Amino acid sequence: MIKLYRYDTAQMSDAEYERLAAAGSDELRARLDRMAHTDDRKRTLAGHLLILGAAKELCGASDPVILRTAAGKPYFAALPIRFSLSHSEDKVILAVSDREIGADIERIRPLSLGVAKRFFTPAEQAYVFGKVPTEQDLSLPKEAQDGALLRRFYEVWTKKEAYGKWQGSGMSAALSVDTAALSFYTENDGEYALAVYEQ
Q1: Fewer CB under 10 Å: which end of the chain, C or N?
Q2: Count of domains for the chain
Q3: Nearest by Cα to 151 from 187, 114, 102, 185
Q4: In the predicted structure, residue 104 carries a pLDDT above the cut 80
Q5: Does residue 62 share a domain with residue 113?
Q6: Rounded to whole angstroms, how far apart are CA atoms 187 and 28?
Q7: pLDDT digit string (tens) for 27-66?
Q8: Residues sharing a CB contact under 8 Å with residue 95, sequence separation 6 or more, in sequence order
Q9: Phi, psi torsion values for 150, nearest 5 degrees
Q10: At 15, which helix (H) or strand (E)?
Q11: 71-86, pLDDT tens digit by residue?
Q12: How far apart are CA 100 and CA 166, in angstroms?
């Protein structure tokens, strides 16, 4: 079972943020107050609200205890569901499952494609570029990167991130994994890509 929850913080006015933050716990308000940027505070609050909403909807829990693994992965202390939170710019997603889960969302935008050589397997690189990439492909200027290439790049990137979050140890755990050999839930609307992995 995968259930996705979404929040667009662009829709959260400053007044709404203040109202929602004031209703939160002392611990949450202190955490938000330590953040320097309004966007970070809104994303953090949105993620917190999504987590509380999912716990209430799926388990009837109104104040779930959240703990962290030694690697920092959050989990519910006493609920039979697992979750993974991710954000990119204004979009915040929460993926929930009854099994271990990892999720990632990324805004699709031009970037330095050389990271594919460092983070992607040869098969993933060939998928992104439609062939075994040359050094020229890997150094393609941002203005020359087309939408199809970027959609494939972010499809693989979000899968890698989701797998790393599933493992609880981040991207380093996903470096040698060929994501084509695994089954992911994915979405890609040309503006954002997301991937969810559970097992």
Answers
A1: N
A2: 2
A3: 187
A4: yes
A5: no
A6: 31
A7: 999 999 999 999 999 999 999 999 999 999 999 998 899 9
A8: 2, 3, 4, 5, 83, 84, 86, 101, 102, 103, 196, 198
A9: -65, -40
A10: helix 14-22
A11: 888 899 999 999 999 9
A12: 6
Q: Identify the CA nearest to 1 among candidates 77, 69, 57, 73.
A: 57
pTM recorded for the entire structure = 0.93
Q: Are residues 140 and 54 in the same domain?
A: no
Write the CB contacts of 143 (distance below 8 Å, at least 6 apart in sequence).
110
Token pair for residue 118? 């460092």
pLDDT at 42: 97
Contact 58, 3 (CB under 8 A): yes
Pick 175 or 109 by higher pLDDT: 109
In one-letter notation, the amino acid at residue 16 is E
DSSP 64: -
Q: What residue numbers bound the domain in which 173 lies?
A: 106-198
